[in-house]
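We now fix the convention by which a protein and its fold are recorded. The integers have meaning only within a learned vocabulary of local backbone shapes. A complete example follows; check for yourself that the lines match position by position.
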Amino acid sequence: MDTSWLTIISGSALLLSVMLLSLMLFLKVRPRRFEDRRDSNATILMQARRAGRVARSRQAATQKQCDTAQSQRMAGGLGRRMVQLETQFRLLAERQDQFDLSQPSSAPYRTAIRLAERGASVQEISTTCKLSASEAQLINTLHRPPQPSRQRLH
């Protein structure tokens, strides 16, 4: 019977050691798997963050290009419009000059201006050019030569 107890004890010890060894291997391998998963998750997270930064920078670059293109289109349109307005202004100024010189009704006013510049009186301008007293007064006020001011000496 001694051998049977000895066999049972040695079998139990062997079984216990196999179980302990299995448990140690299981515990040792399992944290590695978890750490591997954690490392792979961290790697995936870092790659996702990097991809997000790249996508945001590309989006910003694209937006900047769109803004630049839009600004250039607007500036081009404004430039063309400015040239059109300048041309139209120049043509209108030329037409106004031609209109003023070709009008026969402006002849009395030109004569009245010349008379006022020579120092003619309001009545003289009115009768010579057949203008109303108000018109003659206005032309005389605007075009008469400056008179020397009288200064009193104290």
